[in-house]
Amino acid sequence: MKNLYFDNAATTRIDERVLETMLPYLKESYGNPSSAHGMGRTGRLAVETSRRKIASILNCHPNSIVFTSCGTESANMALRCAVTGVRLSHVVTSRTEHACVLQTARNLHFSGKASLSYVAINDQGTAQLTDLNELLEKSHGRSMVALMHANNETGTPLNMALAGEICRRHKAIFFSDCVQTVGHYPIDLSQMPVDMISASAHKFHGPKGIGFLYIREGLPLQALLTGGSHERNMRAGTENVASIVGMAIALEIAARNYAEDSKHTRQLKLALKEKLIEAGAVVNGVDNDSALYTVLNVRFPKTQATENLLLELDMAGVAVSGGSACSAGKGGSHVMEAIGASDAINIRFSFSKYNTMEEVNRLGVLLEELLTLQI
């Protein structure tokens, strides 16, 4: 039986069109894009063309896009370089952020570079923005707010407009981890009240090992990596030309096919949700149309039938997860703990354009067998 892949929030299958576009920059046009000769100039042209393409899709200036190795590096750059470059003294985040944000914020705090506060969240993981406003009102010195666009484990969204309005009112720098939403929603950075966002190509059918950080023009950040003038002096190191090209094409495909792909993916999520609820599951996070349509996180009470469910699904060839791939093997999900669901069996199912309704139905039959319940 063919394996079932429902862990797209961890990573997605690369689009064949993306791979085909990348290959020439691995096989023929492999020059260093900083070299002055012809092959180098070919690489430089590919990098800058890709930068302009991404900027056009997101409606921002090309100079605002800094290529990185992944979403984690982008988040580290945003927090570390802003605290140093803008001389911030306070970081505000939430306990449901990705570990790359939480650990970086804590490291800044413990090293004495910035105080640290956490915005209150409810049992769906929604950030309480009245609390954000109060935290910023009480802050001494300028603050940075780091709140993700949609949670990578539960799909719970942030009210970006209101969060941005509060940040601007208090002159706080607003960074949003958009790793789960870039490539899955139309994003217009000319209208979104945010100073920085992070993205990672492998979340939208691009290659692994490449991402970017959007930095609003005029924000005086200092470089995270030094040793060269690459990326307009923001990130030293030879650019990954093939992957940059692949990321730009992947984003272009995602933007062009958003209406069709999102409709298909929403239908898959809804169909599986109905089956899981009938089986006794409860949805974790926000359970309405505002939730991230690629993610469905549910919990089952701990019983003899559910305690080994993740392992049994894996043995049956089904790829799902109990939380973020980056936190696997670390004793449970900090997100589930933060929303009060850590005493249950939590499973994240996440979808892509490559999943099918036939796969959802096969998964439903398998779950019925494993749970010995009528679905």
Task: Tag the structure with descriptive keywords.
375 residues, 13 helices, 39% helix, alpha/beta, 12 strands
Low-confidence segments, ≥5 residues, pLDDT <50?
A: none
| Overall pLDDT | 94
Radius of gyration: 21 Å
By DSSP (H or I, 4+ residues per run), the number of helices equals: 13
Structural class: alpha/beta
Number of strands: 12
Structure description:
The structure is a single chain. Helices cover 39% and strands 13% of the residues. With 375 residues, it is α/β, with parallel strands linked by helices. A 7-stranded mixed beta sheet has the order 2-8-7-6-5-3-4, sandwiched between helices. Strands 9-10-12 form a 3-stranded antiparallel beta sheet, covered by helices on one side. The relative contact order is 0.17. The longest helix is centred in the first third of the chain and has 21 residues, at 38-58.
Gist?
With 375 residues, the protein is α/β, with parallel strands linked by helices. The chain is built from 13 helices and 12 strands.
Question: What are the SSEs and their pairings?
Answer:
Blueprint: E1 4-5, H1 16-22, H2 24-27, H3 38-58, E2 65-68, H4 71-85, E3 90-93, H5 99-110, E4 115-118, H6 129-138, E5 143-146, H7 160-169, E6 173-177, E7 196-200, E8 211-215, H8 230-233, H9 241-256, H10 258-278, E9 282-283, E10 295-300, H11 309-315, E11 318-319, H12 334-338, E12 345-350, H13 357-371
Helix pairs in contact: 1-9, 3-9, 4-5, 6-7, 10-13
